[in-house]
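Input.
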Amino acid sequence: MVTPSEKGKPMWMSLGVTVGLISKDGVILASDRKGTYGGRITISKTMRKIYKIDEHIALATTGLSGDLKPIVSLMRAHTSLYNYRSDSPIPVRSAARVLGNILHGSRLYPYLAILIIGGIDKEEGPKLFSIDAVGGISEEEHFVAHGSGASFSLGVLESSYREEMDLKEARDLCIKAVKSAIERDVASGNGIELAEITTSGFRREEVDLE
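Output.
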């Protein structure tokens, strides 16, 4: 989102919250569903922030919606091209590198987005990566959170995460982490979007707060 800074110049802020977590069975991505202008005016209560890239890879996004859609389209195109040329699914690590290269190539006029890419493949199992607006890639060992509500979600994740969580435990923890941000961060809200990526494929759902 673009918000006015104290000096009156445009300043970009990553609002809302996105969470990624590795379980023994796969990867969970979760986010709130609130879209705002400057964190003060709600422009959408059903904003999509998690996207399927392939059957085994998904992307959680926070940033300017106008920049997020082209990123998703580019990643889907690169993934399809890789699958066609190699006759095999793109590894999650390779997909993260492709995404990093796309963003780094536009670093002088950057896409205003902070991204989490997660998935599962035969070679390495569940994998999770963070990618910043200029293409910096960070592999996450257990979990990650981004956005204005991230500090609240991280507190929940750090206190409750344990290795070898099953998919249901990981799902419940991600919901709890996003709820914590929604309760405390004005720019997060309006329900939860959640995706599971396992060897069975991609599954997305919407979770009500009640």
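The CA atoms of residues 33 and 47 lie 5 Å apart.
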